[in-house]
Design a protein that fits this description.
alpha/beta; two-stranded parallel ribbon; 11 helices
């Protein structure tokens, strides 16, 4: 990746994969972009990628790092105790209400004034299909969207958006590169949270019978998730080899889990993201 030059044009997009706490890698990439004043006309984010995109869109450099390292150390907001008390593996009350309202207020005015298009990906429980939302003016709806996009199956409750049940966007579209292209953005930078060559296990994901009985389409989407993910990764690698996109990804197999609480590991992954982004020269046309 060293000495690579990337030209940002009107057809440039930024595609942000999710991955739970592995998204700290993306935090490092986006903080570097903010340090260098690098912006894109279009961003699409999934799950943790959508959350990270919000701090990037509001130009709050270091905010996402604070959430994923400092706040985690202070409040330990991940764990089975929340699954027992809140039916959620994470403290969503802290992350999506107390945090943006009081602890580290989110700059909704900066978001509204940002001219970049931002799409947030969720998965419809009714159809099992990916949904793509844009919202920069209604704070409550912004929070509903990122909460829905981050609502992992089995360990997080369903979140309603506009009165419709939604789950994690990564179920139906983990790496929404095709969506970016369909919107007219062909010159994309894709930020992944897995090393090159990673594939999910083949075969259908098992869904226990007690889950999502009212939503057979989302159950089927969860079963097919690994195949969809692997197909999307193959497209990323194909377009990367053809020189049509730029991919920023961890260089080594990830030691950080989706629900990682080791802040030293998280900091190392953040620094790797920052370092790898710095090896690319971005030029605005």
């Amino acid at each position: 990746m060293a000495n690579k030059i990337v030209h940002i044009t009107e057809s440039s997009g930024l595609v942000l994969e999710g991955g739970g706490m592995r998204g700290i890698f993306t935090n490092g990439v986006l903080d570097y972009f903010m340090d260098k004043g690098i912006a894109f006309p279009y961003i699409i984010g999934v799950s943790a990628g959508a959350c990270n995109a919000l701090s990037y869109m509001s130009h709050q450099r270091g905010r996402a790092k604070y959430i994923n390292i400092d706040l985690l150390k202070e409040r330990n907001y991940i764990g089975f105790k929340y699954l027992l008390t809140k039916r959620n593996i994470m403290d969503f009350d802290l992350l999506f209400h107390e945090l943006p309202e009081k602890i580290y207020p989110y700059d909704y005015d900066a978001l509204a004034k940002n001219g970049t298009r931002l799409e947030i990906v969720t998965t419809s429980c009714n159809t099992g299909k990916a949904c793509y939302f844009e919202e920069k003016n209604n704070p409550k709806r912004v929070i509903d969207l990122v909460k829905a996009s981050s609502s992992l199956p089995f360990v997080c409750p369903i979140t309603n958006v506009d009165g419709k049940p939604m789950l994690d966007g990564g179920i139906a579209d983990s790496i929404p590169l095709e969506r970016a292209i369909s919107q007219g953005y062909y010159n994309n930078v894709v930020v992944l949270t897995r090393n090159k060559g990673y594939r999910k296990p083949t075969g259908a994901t098992k869904v226990p019978f007690m889950f999502y009985r009212k939503y057979p389409m989302v159950k089927e989407a969860i079963r097919q998730r690994n195949m969809i993910y692997n197909r999307e990764i193959e497209l990323v690698e194909k377009l990367e080899e053809q020189g049509m996109i730029t991919v920023i990804r961890p260089e080594k197999p990830i030691e950080v889990g989706r629900m990682e609480r080791d802040t030293e590991k998280l900091l190392a992954l953040y620094e790797e993201g920052y370092s790898l982004a710095s090896k690319i020269e971005f030029k605005i046309r």
